[in-house]
Amino acid sequence: MNSLKDLQNFLSQSPYQSCKKFILIDENTFSYCLPELIEEVDALNGAEILEIESGEASKSLAIVEQLCGALIESGADKSSILISLGGGVITDLGGFIASVFKRGIRHIVIPTTLLSMVDASIGGKTAVNLAEIKNQIGTIYQPIFTAIHFPFLETLDQRQILNGAAEMIKIALVCDSDLWDKMRNHSPIDEIGFDEELIISCINLKEAIVEKDLYEEDLRKILNFGHSIGHAFESLSISKGEDLLHGEAVAMGIYYEIRLSELILNFPKNKAKEIYDYLRKYYKIESIKENINEILNYIIADKKNFEDKFQFILLKDIADPQINIPISKEELLATE
Ligand SMILES: NC(=O)c1ccc[n+]([C@@H]2O[C@H](COP(=O)([O-])OP(=O)(O)OC[C@H]3O[C@@H](n4cnc5c(N)ncnc54)[C@H](O)[C@@H]3O)[C@@H](O)[C@H]2O)c1
Ligand SMILES: [Zn+2]
Fold this sequence. Notes:
With 336 residues, this protein is α/β, with parallel strands linked by helices.
């Protein structure tokens, strides 16, 4: 795992020393992260700053066009480096721009939210939204360097920490039962995102999966556990104009997909109960029955429909994921 000091050493090497550098930020990372970055990484002194407004709305083609124009105006060329300093919005957008500007320039990622550290900044997926449809346009483009600086997490509020913690819980349940045992004895909020050691474990697990299957042909699909139902809750909240973060939706998705795992794959009941209790302690779990028709429509829109069944990733046990498990509407209803 690279630190800001490693980034300073990396950028001091001859091919990068003389390149023009651009740092993409939003108003929050401008205030909370940029001063420390410049202080720690001398090589970024004099870099041009590109600032966008925080929020999902900035992941748009209009902003891509605007930022590419700004890059050209500032004399960016093929050898320039774009540094994304922010949460998943900045790293997705910056990655997309780096992958298409002049057919690709070098990208450096410095994630500053828990969610972007453990998830969005790993695996090269870049994206912008098309109208309200999330991540419809994107590329797979790996950064040349990723730097992790834990103190950046100190200015996140509790909700943002829990947002990232949901993805940590997911990866532990899918890949590593010892990690889950450690997590369930910790609070994700007392220590930021459990603690540094657990964050590092999650980063390593995702990196190992992505290394084996960058293009999500098979293995990487297991990372979508919790996301079939999670995405449906997320879309539902967007349609109702409610404020629900991705990780909050994923926590509900994990809850109901563990229920399905229990019903269909005999996931051990005692472990399931521990997971439900833990999730209910930190997240609001909404009813699936109350919104079943909308939830079903979103799942149908999201998934290949196979003889009236939807393909889910479920768990036979902790760290034993099974892909392409067919689920019917009746089985979904039986989760409550
Ligand atoms: N590419 C992928 O594989 C992948 C995976 C998961 C999520 N995503 C994407 O990531 C995005 C969500 O990422 P996110 O949750 O990081 O949201 P975000 O980027 O919107 O950040 C959340 C908020 O925290 C602020 N912030 C960032 N760093 C801060 C800091 N250190 N201190 C205080 N405030 C800070 C931001 O300005 C923003 O207001 C979504 O667009 C999602 O689609 C991508
Ligand atoms: Zn997710």
